[in-house]
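Standup notes
- DV: blocked on the single-chain target, sequence here:
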Amino acid sequence: MQENTTDEQLMLNYRDGDAEAFEVLYRKHKGPLYRYVLRQCDESYVDEIFQDIWMKIVNARERYKVNAKFTTWLYNIAHNRIIDHYRRQNIRPVSNNEGEIESTPSHANKQPEQQAQSNEQVEQLLIAIRNLPNDQRDTFLLHEEAGLSIDEIAQTTGVNFETAKSRLRYAIGKLRDDMKGLL
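- DV (later): unblocked, structure below
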């Protein structure tokens, strides 16, 4: 029953004491959120930051109000937690972290040569994403991993709509340029 409930209603239910609602939210958002953090941070910090984001959700449940989509709120917390991490470390975000390549069911039926070429393309794309300027990478990942709209990205990152739109456009353009000849 709760699987069909909106994220906002699930969070309100969780705020009101329904632990199952939190479990549904966690199952739904853990993969995209983890990949977002993984693509933003050094691997040695990913699990810690990921868990800390969920703890912030748990600790904020009593104050939760629907002011935006749940995903906008969630990724705002994640975005700010990642920024805080780098400020505490007094370092800039890394752009060369190693990310796991997820295999998809379509790989299972491919010939070895096709699978190798596909794996190479995925690896090249991950490298191209890591090499994007930080703001563009953040915007691209919020759009692709979190599924946020440009308006939601602007709200999450604290920039205006046009800035978020430009960052996404530049990121996609740079990725296209980097992937030419491979696709």
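- Follow-up: The CA atoms of residues 116 and 166 lie 34 Å apart.
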